[in-house]
Write a structure and sequence with these properties.
single chain; six-stranded mixed beta sheet; alpha/beta; Quinone Oxidoreductase, Chain A, domain 1; 19 strands; 374 residues; Rossmann fold
């Protein structure tokens, strides 16, 4: 079938993107779903820093590619081998497909799925299929989803079924921002009741980590960012304290607020500077968690003796260490109970044709989640 999609052919074009237009709305071909695949009509897709990091070349990918990974839609057709879903089902896409058979999947860590990571790295669907093309030439998939399009063909391991009552724009957030941020607090860090927490970087993922820490029962949640408007939003969402990360005494301010540092420091900005800040505001014996994805060449210098003598822990968190079919419905239920007010993170709703302007706003740091409605 032919459909409209946002195609990127060259990374690293200059801002403003409204002028350079790294994403071009074009007609592409989409093949029918193969074995254990689904055809999904995309209804809503979020603009995430992971998409921006491909546009600005921080996360190099194969070109040309249809971007977009945080999305929700409706199943149109089920390929052979898909027996637990049917046309009309509402689904949320997940950017880390899981095969269910590798060691990581069997150990309950589908975000580490080895075949899934290989396929994502190659710009293909799980199982190495490619269903996108244009004029007979292949177009690559973005982390198994490619949601900035009217339709997408995805592997069964890339979707989670949801009920029909959740609006698509809200549902889309759960596929990346909520799973990654809330999961980092509840699964990776395992924040305990009464803990002191700091979150560095208040994008969609960082603000969800802040919400997740509150769900876990943290007694103190300190929000850090370089933008005062995001600090104000964090305060509205329940942060007990806010500190501008540009302040020369930001580290000391956090230590004064917490009598020496936090139990859990979260780096959610995807930069070495943010990681250094998160580590230095974590107390002796504390845990620093990062879900940031900087350029592959980025290096963070760690003082070895400090790690040992202060018995610190540094952990990476990918997809919030979640099991999506288990955790996503739980987080939706917490949202319905008012414990995860993720709808307050939606900054705007835009059309697919406005996507370059949307990424300009995201790059400026003054927006959280813009949703493309399709």
């Amino acid at each position: 079938m032919k459909m409209k999609a946002a195609v990127i052919r060259q990374m690293g074009l200059p801002q403003p993107y409204a002028t350079s237009k790294p994403l071009v709305i074009e007609e592409v071909d989409l093949d029918k779903p193969g074995e254990r695949e689904l055809l999904v009509q995309v209804k809503a897709a979020g603009l995430c820093h992971s998409d921006l990091s491909t546009i600005n070349a921080d996360r190099p990918r194969q070109m040309p590619m249809v971007l977009g990974h945080e999305a929700a839609g409706v199943v149109v057709e089920c390929g052979p081998g898909v027996h637990d879903l049917k046309p009309g089902n509402h689904v949320v896409m997940v950017f880390a497909p899981s095969c269910g058979e590798c060691i990581s999947c069997q150990e309950g860590h589908p975000g580490r799925c080895e075949p899934g990571q290989r396929s994502n790295g190659a710009g293909k669907l799980l199982g190495d299929a490619m269903r996108l093309s244009q004029n007979g030439q292949p177009v690559y998939h973005h982390v198994g989803v490619s949601a900035f399009a009217e339709y997408c063909t995805v592997n069964r391991g890339s979707v989670v079924k949801i009920d029909d009552e959740l609006p698509f724009d809200e549902a889309a957030l759960f596929g990346c921002a909520v799973l990654t941020g809330v999961g980092a607090a509840l699964n990776t860090a395992q924040v305990f009741p009464g803990a002191r927490v700091a979150v560095v970087g208040l994008g969609g993922v960082g603000l969800n980590a802040l919400l997740g820490a509150q769900v876990a029962g943290a007694s103190q949640v300190i929000a850090l960012d370089v933008h005062d408007d995001k600090l104000a939003l964090a305060k509205k969402l329940g942060a007990t304290d806010v500190v501008n990360a540009k302040d020369s005494d930001a580290i000391q301010k956090v230590k004064d607020l917490t009598r020496g540092g936090v139990d859990f420091g979260f780096e959610m900005a995807g930069s070495v500077q943010a990681m250094e800040l998160a580590y230095r505001i974590t107390r002796r014996g504390g845990t620093t968690v990062t879900a940031g994805l900087p350029h592959p060449d980025a290096r963070w210098q760690l003082q070895h003796v400090n790690l040992t003598a202060e018995e610190r822990t540094v952990k990476g968190s990918y997809v919030g260490s979640c099991v999506p079919p288990r955790d996503l419905p739980r987080y939706v239920e917490l949202y319905r109970k008012g414990m995860l007010p993720v709808s307050q993170l939606m900054s705007d709703h835009i059309r697919l044709e406005q996507i370059n302007e949307g990424f300009d706003r995201l790059a400026s740091g003054h927006t959280v989640r813009q949703i493309v409605m399709l």
